From TrEMBL:
Residue span(s) of domain Piwi: 203-507
The family this protein is said to belong to: Belongs to the argonaute family. Long pAgo subfamily.
Organism annotation: Wenzhouxiangella marina
CDD domains (UniProt xref): Piwi_piwi-like_ProArk (cd04659)
Name under which the protein is recorded: Protein argonaute
Domain of life: Bacteria
UniProt GO MF annotations: nucleic acid binding
Length: 527
């Protein structure tokens, strides 16, 4: 195929941009890209963003502007809405022996994880898969993960000490190269060894490379490793060889988050949310999606995930019924998952005839379709012995509203940014809420945080927008991937992760989602 070069252009993507800078500036690429990132962040800072809005306002105020019929347009000064704003309380976390803390890090250190006394994988057996030429450095890395870094502020005790796991039993299996076959051989050797011993691996640590991200799924050891270990109900934590280049100071923060995810993947519960008891049995259901595509220029496949179910205290109730399907099969899958989930939970939680059941659906969608609502209503019809109420809550990041807080104008970072938990009610069914605030910004180049708009669908039978916004705010602090608050609640972020992972894994030959029916489906395997 021949094309006139004048008709070609470089697609505006981050990958292409960085490749172009590498081509034109060679080893100066990283410095230049970082300078550009900082310039963009500065452009998006609260101070500059407000200045541009004010400039546009002043421009229109200085001119007489009228509609076609002559009606004059007046742009007024923005009102002070401080008295109309709300401030959500910080969530409180529950740890071992019902210890409570508003800071997860402090609570873990002081009380230990929620499942400290009931965790069944103490003295865990862990296999490590790594490249033969990197074995020495990987062993040092794994020791730091398990035992800690002595001078680290938050990770001096490591995974074993922080989560009271006892002493891990480690075996290392090496790959001769970076091919899928080499990884398969090492993984199969690990699985065979443990099978011969009559035991099981509690966790697999798999070393990969950043360059694997550019590989197709069928050629990618990252996805093959996951599929093979998942097939044998073994949770996986991967890490890139490039991570080993970090200083101990930075590595301590990275390993702190990694250890948190490892504990959850092995079935542990680091903490739960303290919730005020209600008169209802409440289930919060997350609906996520991911775009799965092998090559640029080809249409990506959108995968819908009906994936996470939480109780009001943040307990992760059901995941092995999770599905990732194409949009055409979505409503049927939603009905199936919801029906199966309610059926399991009503028995587990001993629901009684006449009890009130509340279903809260979180989704990032343009709007809830009639088919989605009909699917939920069809399931509810099967449970007439209960008083069932439900909410369809649309969670939107894409909007044009910005809130500026003059009390933070003098701060070094996040100038004019509101505090986390700040809310502004837009209507009876809409509210603006900030899950990331001024204090959560790590650098002065992080820009201005964007709030979320929560919108209760008119078909909902439970419509308490303040209650629902407080719940979303708490769930944004409940991720076991990191100790930092998330810009989205875990109902959405977890659902997106599961949809993305299952979407890619379904492209591996021989993979079946039925693998998730086993024990691994009840863990946070996707973190």
């Amino acid at each position: 195929m021949q094309v006139n070069a004048k008709e070609l252009y470089l697609e505006a993507s981050r990958v292409n941009f960085e490749d172009y800078i590498l081509h034109t500036h060679g080893n100066k690429k990283d410095v230049i890209v970082e300078c550009i990132r900082q310039a963009i962040s500065k452009f998006n800072s609260g101070k500059n963003k407000k200045a541009r809005i004010d400039a546009l306002k002043n421009y229109f105020q200085s001119r007489d502007i009228s509609l076609i019929d002559g009606t004059p347009i007046k742009i007024m000064e923005p009102p002070d809405i401080e008295s109309q704003c709300g401030q959500l309380q910080k969530p409180v976390f529950v740890f071992n022996d019902n210890g409570e803390a508003s800071w997860a890090e402090k609570g873990l250190t002081q009380y230990g994880p929620y499942t400290k006394r009931t965790f069944d994988r103490n003295d865990p057996s862990i296999c490590v898969i790594c490249a033969q030429q990197d074995k020495g450095r990987v062993e040092q890395f794994v020791r730091k993960l398990l035992k800690g870094i002595s001078r680290s502020k938050y990770f001096s005790n490591g995974l074993e000490g922080k989560f009271t796991l006892g002493t891990s039993h480690i075996d290392v299996f090496t790959t001769t190269n970076d091919s899928v076959d080499a990884y398969k051989n090492a993984i199969e050797a690990a699985i065979r060894q443990k099978a011969d011993d009559g035991g099981r691996w509690d966790l697999a640590l798999v070393q990969v490379r950043q360059s694997f991200k550019k590989l197709n799924v069928n050629e990618n050891p990252y996805y093959w490793g996951k599929s093979l270990f998942f097939l044998h109900q073994i949770p996986v934590q991967d890490f890139t060889i490039e991570l080993l280049e970090q200083s101990d100071y930075s590595l301590g923060y990275s390993l702190n988050n990694m250890a948190l995810a490892c504990y959850a993947k092995m079935g542990g519960i680091p903490w739960l949310l303290k919730s005020s008891p209600t008169l209802s049995h409440e289930l919060v259901i997350g609906i996520g999606s991911a775009n799965i595509g092998q090559k640029r220029g080809f249409e990506n496949q959108r995968i819908m995930g009906i994936t996470t179910v939480f109780s009001g205290d943040g307990s992760y109730i059901v995941s092995n019924t999770s599905k990732a399907v194409v949009p055409e099969a979505y409503c049927e899958a939603l009905t199936s998952v919801l029906d199966e989930t309610i059926g399991k939970i009503q028995k587990r939680m001993n629901w009684q005839k006449g009890d009130t059941i509340r279903l809260v659906f979180h989704a990032q969608v343009k709007k809830f379709s009639k088919d989605e609502i009909a699917a939920v209503q069809a399931v509810i019809e099967k449970y007439r012995e209960y008083q069932v109420e439900y909410t369809f809550l649309k969670i939107s990041e894409n909007h044009s509203l910005h809130m500026f807080d003059s009390t933070s104008a003098g701060e070094r970072k996040g100038r004019l940014a509101p505090q986390r938990g700040k809310t502004f009610k837009l209507s009876k069914h809409e509210i603006l809420v900030y899950l990331i605030g001024q204090r959560e910004l790590r650098n002065d180049t992080d820009g201005h945080p964007r709030g979320l708009i929560l919108d209760v669908h008119k078909a909902s039978t439970f419509t308490d927008i303040k209650y629902l916004s407080a719940q979303v705010h708490s769930f944004a602090s409940h991720s076991w991937r990191s100790y930092f608050p998330n810009p989205l609640p875990v109902t959405i972020s977890y659902s997106d992760l599961i949809a993305r992972n299952l979407g890619w894994l379904n492209q591996i030959p021989g993979w079946s989602d039925s693998v998730m029916i086993g024990k691994i489906g009840h863990s946070q395997w996707f973190l």
